[in-house]
Every structure is written in structure tokens, then in C-alpha cells.
């Protein structure tokens, strides 16, 4: 079985990368609070308009610094990649 799997296995390019959240801890906390607020009602189907609710959630996360988190993540990831 291993002989058939090994040739097809691909190691993800992110294998070994660990994101340091410290530089964006406030933004991460704010984004996580929004996820914690919206996840239950979305998972349980407790909203009338799912798309509208997701748009509201994404707008709230963007206002809370999601772009800052994304930028920091990408900067760290690119630095990690270049050091390998």
C-alpha cells in the first residue's frame, strides 16, 4: 500500500511554519470575538439570510483588523520561506 501512496504524497509548503500572533494579538482577539459571535448562529441555521449575515461578519472582521492580520501572516510566511 505504501508503494502506491508515497509517489503521490505532497508535503504542504506550509509544513513547519508557525505564525507568531504576538504582533497582532489585539486584532486577532477582535477577529476571534466576531467569529465566536457569528459561528453558532450560522452553524445552527438561526439566521434568515445566510449571505447577508456572512457579509456582516466579514465587514465586522475587516473593521477589526483582519487585513492587518493577513498582512502580518504573509510577511512572516514569506520571511520563513526565504529562510528555507
SSE layout and pairing:
Elements: H1 2-5, H2 25-43, H3 50-63, H4 66-82
Helix pairs in contact: 2-3
Offer a concise description of the structure.
The chain is mainly α. It is built from four helices and no strands.
Characteristics:
mainly alpha, 84 residues
Describe what you observe in this structure:
The chain is mainly alpha-helical. The protein has one domain. Helices cover 64% and strands 0% of the residues. It contains four helices and no strands. Helix 2 runs antiparallel to helix 3. The longest helix has 19 residues. The two termini are 32 Å apart. The model has no long low-confidence stretch (mean pLDDT 95).
* 3D shape: flat
- Structural class call reads mainly alpha
Helix percentage: 55-70%
Distance between the termini: 32 Å
Annotation field: number of helices: 4
The number of distinct structural domains comes to 1
Beta content? under 5%
Report on the biggest sheet. none
The low-confidence parts are none
Radius of gyration: 18 Å
Order of helices and strands: HHHH
- Give the overall average pLDDT: 95
Q: What's the total count of β strands?
A: 0
Amino acid at each position: 500500500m505504501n508503494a502506491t501512496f508515497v509517489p503521490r504524497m505532497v508535503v504542504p509548503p506550509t509544513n513547519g511554519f508557525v505564525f507568531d500572533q504576538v504582533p497582532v494579538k489585539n486584532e486577532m482577539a477582535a477577529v476571534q470575538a466576531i467569529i465566536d459571535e457569528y459561528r453558532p448562529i450560522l452553524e445552527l441555521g438561526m439566521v434568515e439570510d445566510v449571505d447577508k449575515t456572512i457579509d456582516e461578519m466579514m465587514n465586522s472582521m475587516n473593521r477589526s483588523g483582519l487585513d492587518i492580520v493577513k498582512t502580518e501572516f504573509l510577511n512572516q510566511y514569506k520571511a520563513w520561506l526565504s529562510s528555507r
